Amino acid sequence: MNGVDFLADSLPVFWAGFRITVLLALASYAGALILGAVLAVLRISPAAPARAAGLAYVEWFRNVPLLVHLFVAILCLPKLGVRIGPFTAAFLVLAMYTAAQVCEALRSGVNAVPRGQAEAGRALGLTFGQNLRHVILPQAARTVVPPLGSVFIALVKNTAVASLIGVVDLTYQFGELARDEPGQVMTLLVAVAFGYLVMTIPAGYAVARLQRRAAVAR
Amino acid sequence: MTDPSTPLIAVEHVDKWFGSLHVLRDVNLDVRRGEVVVVVGPSGSGKSTLCRVINRIEPIDSGVIRVDGRPLPAEGRALARLRADVGMVFQQFNLFSHRSILDNVTLGPVKVRGIPREQARRRARELLARVGIADQADKMPAQLSGGQQQRAAIARALAMDPKVLLFDEPTSALDPEMINEVLDVMTTLAGDGMTMVVVTHEMGFARRAADRVVFMADGQLLEQAPPTDFFDHPRTDRARDFLSKVLTH
Amino acid sequence: MTTVDEERPAPPELAPARRVRPTPATALYDAFGPRGRRRVLVATVVSVAVLAGFAVFVLYRLDRYGHLQRARWSYVLSPEILRYLGEGMLNNLKASVIAGALALVLGLVLALGRLSGTRAIRVPAVAWIEFFRGFPLVLLILFPYLLFPVYLRAVDPLWYVVIGLTLYNSAVIAEVYRAGILSLDRGQQEAAYAVGLRHGQAMRLVILPQAIRRMVPLLLTQLIILFKDSTLGVAVTYPDALRRGETMGSFEPRVVFQAIIVTAVMFFLVGLVASRLVGVLERHWSRG
């Protein structure tokens, strides 16, 4: 069988894997944005224990490798009577892992707003909520968008790690096909490369554009 | 309304520390309606802090500050309402960098005072014309020169119809050629009867526009007098020393 | 003329430490008044309660499934097992050191290539960087693992890990170098040209020494990430700490939980200490 025929035959398999990868990336990203926002609120809270809890969470997820978290989810949770499938485990772990990065991006965005801006809002008579809504958050949003884009790109690439705990994504399908047809590894390589680069490279350019736009607006 | 004879601002026995640094030492100061008080002194004397405690941008550690006879609220909506009546102009302008000049001037009136947007815009354009930058209304702050930004910041403060305006070193961050355009606006305001507290290094402005000059050093308010008295006959050694350094050229 | 009572004695000096108030860390909050401080107190109490509740829940759950049993933990924390896991960690380190060294060199070459004025050098460098940066690292480790047996011959899994880590990190590190070089004040470059240096000399003698010093913390941070990523060697049966933790669980199923947790904590401690050290170095350098 030549490369082209082989690729045509395995296209449905790749497509199925690709869809899982996209689904996993989007779902985890949504979860990470929500959880990351909650964590960011904890991290800048005036209550010391809340700050400490937020910091502990971020440090744990930043310093322990992603695959270790995935192993904790599929090997340790069942020992506590929690049974979840590989996809659910991967979704939860990726969302929680990425939330730490989202949290730090949001936090540094808020901290990047110059103190004088908040003071000027206060001096005008804006209440805390008004100052947040009209002065601080709109400015923080500009600095936060590019890093959040980079976080998404990293997440897309990280979804591939989920294949190691049995999530049937693009990488998993690639591995299966390669084991069945070792002679076609080069062809498969090109196909799987295309599958990921088609997501990460455009996203990378979008981030770079946003970065330039944010830089100009300042 | 309160009795017009009560001072608009009354600072009574105010102390403030930054950590172990005693930045305001038992400061007392009254500002009457329509009065222009210029605060001068060497850097680090606490004059900027004095300006910033009046609308509680900085909290104080002891003493009382009254605005229009009422003690300064500690927090919340009451404090926000008070601040709406006390305009402030900062050294670094602090225009909202994500909003146009016009939006900077209308934000307060619309969100704090609840004035209809169109009405606020009309008034904002009038004020921008008054400070001489009517043609800059639709630009972003970063597109303006420092002097223009500071004038926009003055318009932003005026848009709230404040009872008093606080100026915290309004010309210190400006290039020399832009200082006068800002001082001119301030002088006009002073002539129009606006109550002003101005912290500045501009002795010419103090001489020209002040009703009273206040001299601070090391967190203490050492002298206050009409400008001619202060500049020609300073009473304290610290003031004489200070004036000899700033007036030599 | 009104002179403010100059002679009046200053108020009694109060102990400076007395004035410690909960100053907000960000520009977000106004200074707190009494009500604000009360709210912070309530938030503090509530968050302590929530955290304590969570801790109790976890401990209860652990106890109910017998994971607090001393025997299980002492088994995993015995010297032999710790040595077994520790040697796994050394395998992570081995792969990381080799790949890190290669990526640092290759990355520099790529960065200089990308900044080169010659198109024939620049284009391949850009292509390499963009291609390998956009790739999931697992795949870059799987490729040699699948390709080598077919086209060459199977080698020690260590080398698959090293190849994957090197390819990916050469691209990432190249961008770190490039950002460092570009962030350098243009004046430095102009000054170098002004004293008569050529492009290559300016780069070698003026730009790089300064740029590298500035980017060392970033490079070290990337090397820590590389170390964590070395756990992906699990995909090609490389006997790293994580794989050893996992296999231990499979020959002693009663301690799977403990084995994985201990492995995770080991990684946590190594990562935390390393990133704190980088932080210290960064502060030290930004001061000096």
Characterise the protein shown here:
The complex is a heterotrimer of chains A (218), B (249) and C (288). Chain A has 218 residues and is an all-alpha fold. In chain A, 83% of the residues lie in helices and 0% in strands. Chain A starts with a helix and ends with a helix. The model of chain A has no long low-confidence stretch (mean pLDDT 89). Chain B is α/β, with parallel strands linked by helices. Chain B has helices spanning 47-53, 76-85, 101-113, 117-130, 146-158, 176-191, 203-209, 227-232, 237-246; strands spanning 9-18, 21-31, 36-40, 62-67, 70-71, 86-89, 164-168, 195-199, 212-217, 220-225. In chain B, the strands form two sheets. Chain B has a six-stranded mixed sheet with strand order 6-7-8-3-9-10, with helices on both faces. Chain B has a four-stranded antiparallel sheet with strand order 2-1-4-5, covered by helices on one side. In chain B, α6 (176-191) links the parallel β7 (164-168) and β8. In chain B, α3 packs across α4, α3 (101-113) packs parallel to α5 and α4 (117-130) packs across α5. The termini of chain B are far apart. Chain C has two domains: 30-65; 78-287, MetI-like fold (Orthogonal Bundle), CATH 1.10.3720. The longest helix of chain C has 37 residues, at 79-115. Chains in contact: A-B, A-C, B-C.
Beta strand % of chain B? 15-25%
Low-pLDDT segments, ≥5 res of chain C: 1-25
Overall geometry of chain B comes to: globular
Determine the most extensive contact between two protein chains.
A-C, 62 and 58 residues
Considering DSSP H and I runs of 4 or more, what fraction of the residues of chain C is helical? over 70%
Q: Beta-strand percentage of chain C?
A: under 5%
InterPro entries (chain A): AA_ABC_transptr_permease_3TM, ArtM/GltK/GlnP/TcyL/YhdX-like, MetI-like, MetI-like_sf
GO biological process, one term (chain A): amino acid transport
GO cellular component, one term (chain A): ATP-binding cassette (ABC) transporter complex
Membrane topology (chain A): Multi-pass membrane protein
